[in-house]
Design goal:
It is built from no helices and eleven strands. Strand 5 and strand 6 form a beta hairpin.
Length: 123
């Protein structure tokens, strides 16, 4: 029974920072890629960031320089440090494990998703 649980979301003002965390259980993901996605109301779920087990990372253009993805080995998971948050970052953020990593993106695993954590950025 693989479970991924996100935490760290909340409501903040533009320019503030949040750190999201994803803890996994039921399987070891130390040599698996992991990623973050987000979905705003009425919009498609979109890729945010991913990290390969080797440490290589990639990001969508709109978050480069503001967001940093990192492995959290203590939680068998992944974190997302979000700085200089903007109103357009408002969304539910989901983590995904064991997807297919590439230099240009990340194809998510069909089953290994968390339930999401809400991030709301007010202007």
């Amino acid at each position: 029974q693989v479970r991924l649980v996100e935490s760290g979301g909340g409501t903040v003002q533009a320019g503030a920072s949040l750190r999201l965390s994803c803890a996994a259980s039921g399987r070891t993901f130390s040599r698996s890629a992991m990623g973050w996605f987000r979905q705003a109301p009425g919009k498609e779920r979109e890729f945010v960031a991913a990290i390969h087990w080797s440490g290589a990372t990639n990001y969508r253009d709109s978050v480069k320089g503001r967001f940093t993805i990192s492995r959290d080995n203590a939680k068998n998971g992944v974190s997302l440090q979000m700085n200089s948050l903007k109103a357009e970052d408002t969304a539910v953020y989901y983590c995904n494990a064991a997807g297919a990593y590439s230099d240009s993106g990340y194809y998510p695993h069909g089953r290994y998703w968390g339930q999401g954590t809400q991030v709301t950025v007010s202007s």
